[in-house]
Amino acid sequence: PVLPRDARRTERAAAQEISDDHEVTYQHRVLMPSGDYLGMRVRAKRLADGSAVVVMQDISEELRRVGEAEQIAKANALLNEAAGVHLWRYDPDSDQYEIDPDFSRPFGESDPDTRVSVADVQENMDPADRILVQEAVARGVETGELTVIDFRNRDEDGQWRHLRNAWVGSRQLPSGRFE
Predict the structure, then answer these.
(1) Share of the chain above pLDDT 70, in %
(2) pLDDT for the residue 109
(3) How crowded is residue 104: how many other Cβ atoms within 10 Å of its Cβ?
(4) Backbone angles phi, psi at 176, to 5 degrees
(5) CB 27 within 8 A of CB 19
(6) Residues of the chain whose pLDDT is less than 70?
(7) Distance (Å, rounded) from C-alpha 131 to C-alpha 11?
(8) Which of 13, 126, 20, 70 shows the shortest CA–CA distance to 134?
(9) Phi first, then psi: what are they for 159, rounded to 5°?
(10) Considering only CA atoms, which of 64, 54, 65, 74 is closest in space to residue 29?
(11) What is the CA radius of gyration of the chain?
């Protein structure tokens, strides 16, 4: 059986497929004997002879990843608003940061407006703190150890603010997940 909240949309899409002579794509979830729901993407087209070609694709993993990404985005938004906490992801290969990235995606697939070069970040940093921060980042990337560092940074108004950063180094696996 189709998940009840998907039933009407599925029925409308199927009716459109039957009455129209074009391709229809829709998604729904199907109840499995285990009690879990299987996410399905269906593409259907009626052929000239009256028969139909239907392709069903299991998209359960894709839906799970989307759900995880939404949960991460909500958690990030709550942290940002409540405590002024932002998550940054550093890519040592490109020497760039992604600010509040979508961790379900590989580096660089998030919004380009969230990426900033290390040079741009260091430009607003207290010169006396730059080396300490560079060493902390390098140590975190190399060892994977938690490193906490305090430094001063100029805000948009040119005022100094004190920041505390906690770094943990990890590498992204070919699957897009992190170690």
Answers:
(1) 82
(2) 67
(3) 19
(4) 100, -15
(5) no
(6) 1, 3, 14-21, 101-111, 170-179
(7) 62
(8) 126
(9) -85, 145
(10) 64
(11) 24
